[in-house]
Write a structure and sequence with these properties.
The complex is a heterodimer of chains A (230) and B (65). Chain A has 230 residues and is of the alpha+beta class. Chain A has 4 helices and 9 strands; from the N terminus they run βββαββαβαββαβ. Chain A is globular. Chain B has one domain. In chain B, helix 1 packs antiparallel against helix 2. Classes of the chains: A alpha+beta (230), B mainly alpha (65).
Chain lengths: 230, 65
């Protein structure tokens, strides 16, 4: 009995290129179940999460994207004991998976990470330990200051994301906004973009960056639509 | 000026790991990878992220590749 490691789901039969290898250096194969197809590798155990294997996983999913199809990417580490378990899970979730595939059809994902090169001083991440007389009050004050500064950054991030979305218009089909609480981070945005609009998207981000030159915009993609798969 | 990331860029690595480990559809209905392994990757990524953001703060603008 050999387990199956899963990369992505597809609504069309897209055959993996000959010789394509993925996680664990295992060959990549096509499986079908009802109206769904998927790419899998025979693997006898759950792979360890390493950066190298994460790259391999993404390289396989990106191969589908590069072939002109949009897959539904599967999260890293999804492993099933054999083909019958795989068929059972695909059958059980078929209607959800097909709906999600329809949502991402002919689209790709881009990421925009917005950074502030000169951020206002954040309240300290570490608040004083509540020990000694008056320390409890100091602790609560420090905690409140920290939460307030994060709230201000989150609000600013949402405003930037909304303004960017208005600029991008209909080439963006969906978006996901996540707060960043790193030293320079403001917000991380994922956009689901029409495949035909990818060039226009880059142009719009470029123009938006010129208009907001106090910030840094790091654009990555096109990605398989990981952020819009669930 | 916006900067488009090269595939091997540190921030691009953060974007990659966030997507592949944390997003994407779950088919098996349960998390099957080791939580300790995931924690170690994120610990490393936090260091990468801090260094990459600081470099971008002081470094020259990147050409679009």
């Amino acid at each position: 009995m050999t387990g199956r490691y899963l990369y992505c789901l597809l609504s069309d039969d897209v055959v993996p290129p000959r010789g394509l290898r993925g996680v664990g250096d295992a060959p990549v194969e096509l499986r079908r179940q009802g109206g769904l197809a998927c790419w899998v590798s025979p693997l006898d155990r759950v792979p360890d999460p390493t950066v190298e294997e994460i790259r391999h996983h993404n390289a396989v999913v990106a191969t589908v994207l590069a072939a002109g199809h949009t897959p539904l990417p599967v999260r890293y580490g999804q492993w099933l004991a054999d083909d019958s378990f795989l068929a059972e899970r695909l059958h059980a979730g078929a209607s959800d998976f097909l709906r999600a595939l329809e949502r991402v059809r002919d689209a790709v994902e881009f990421g925009v990470r917005v950074l502030d090169p000169e951020p206002a001083a954040l309240a300290p991440a570490e608040v004083p330990s509540p020990e000694g007389p008056g320390a409890g009050t100091a602790y609560l004050r420090a905690l409140a200051a920290r939460l307030e500064s994060e709230r201000r950054i989150d609000l600013r991030g949402r405003e930037i994301a909304e303004s960017l979305r208005a600029t991008l218009g209909s080439i963006v089909r969906a978006e996901r906004i996540d707060a960043l609480h790193s030293q320079h981070g403001i917000v991380s945005i994922a956009h689901l973009v029409e495949r035909s609009g990818a060039e226009a998207y880059r142009g719009c981000i470029d123009a938006f960056g010129h208009d907001h030159n106090d910030l840094r915009f790091f654009v990555s993609g096109p990605w398989p639509p990981y952020s819009f798969a669930a | 000026m916006p900067e488009l990331l090269r595939p091997d860029d540190e921030l691009s690595l953060v974007e990659l790991v966030n997507r592949v480990l944390d997003r994407g559809v779950v088919v098996t209905g349960e998390v099957t990878i080791s939580v300790a392994g995931v924690d170690l990757i994120y610990l490393g990524l936090n260091l990468v992220l801090a260094s990459a953001e600081t470099l971008r703060r002081h470094g020259p603008p990147r050409a679009v590749s």
